[in-house]
Design a protein that fits this description.
alpha/beta; 2-enoyl-CoA Hydratase, Chain A, domain 1; six-stranded mixed beta sheet; 53% helix; 15% strand
């Protein structure tokens, strides 16, 4: 068994290949628009630890299978978190660990987004050290449309990337951003044509993989202290998101998604 098969062979929702001797490409693939179901959500926690510990990897590309990056959280997982406290608590811990494990992964990460980028997949897309999307990729946070607070990665990094005014607008309204506009406002690194996406992501990852490894790792670590010092802000946003899974708004938000209609949220908040 190869070292790669031994280290990554247990993954079921993430696929792995080596487009460069020192670059590993992670492909989210579950046959359902690459939504983050319970299995993928869990795997997005552990993969950053495995990559970090892999001596054969200097850089990472994360992408989605086919024409889709990730369509967000699987609705069955959302329903399970609404129904059961233990599932909700586990989801909170995993959501926290996806963010912190990616921040703390010493290897530089390049994301390659096309189609739709939402939810847990978008966490990895935006928190990547270099984020690339097709010009027509639809980027959407999605939390308030579902009926929960914008937790996950949103509060910790959107204001830092695109400024508070833009972050507030897109996180409060859940309007969709196309890749070209996301690049213009600074939310992502670069927007490219679809046929250039994969090669561009691999080229950047290969350049990083062939560079001065200690210098690159320590530069990433230093820059990510901007995110670490925002840890209490992130923790609060994530706690508020998961508190919302016990409320009425998320039930209506989920129902409206399943029934493909506009939501009718309660008119007033008790807070």
């Amino acid at each position: 068994m190869s070292a790669q098969a031994s280290r990554y062979g247990h993954y079921t929702r993430l696929k792995f290949d080596k487009p460069h001797p020192k670059v590993i490409r992670i492909t989210m693939d579950n046959g359902k628009m690459n939504t983050a179901d319970a299995a993928m959500h869990s795997e997005l926690v552990s993969v950053w630890r495995d990559v970090d510990a892999d001596p054969e990897v200097n850089a990472v590309v994360i992408t989605g299978a086919g024409r889709m990056f990730s369509a967000g959280g699987d609705f069955s997982m959302v329903q399970a978190q609404i129904d059961d406290f233990a599932t909700r608590a586990r989801g909170w811990k995993e959501a926290r660990d996806i963010v912190y494990n990616l921040i703390n992964c010493s290897k530089p990460v390049v994301s390659a987004m096309r189609g739709v980028a939402v939810g847990a997949g978008l966490v990895c897309g935006i928190l990547a050290d270099v984020s690339i999307a097709t010009k027509d990729c639809r980027i959407l946070d999605g939390h308030t449309r579902l009926g929960v607070a914008a937790g996950d990665h949103a509060a910790i990094i959107w204001p830092l990337l695109c400024g508070m005014a833009k972050a507030k607008y897109y996180l409060l309204t859940c309007d969709t951003l196309l890749g070209a506009e996301a690049e213009r406002i600074g939310l992502i690194t670069e927007a490219v044509e679809d046929d250039a996406l994969d090669a561009r992501a691999v080229a950047i990852a290969a350049r990083l993989a062939e560079g001065a490894q200690t210098a690159i790792k320590w530069t990433k670590y230093s820059l990510n202290n901007w995110l670490r010092q925002a840890g209490p802000l992130f923790d609060a946003s994530l706690a508020m998101e998961f508190l919302g899974f016990d409320g009425p708004e998320v039930k209506e938000g989920l129902a409206s998604h399943l029934e493909k209609r506009k939501p009718a949220f309660p008119p007033n908040s008790p807070f």
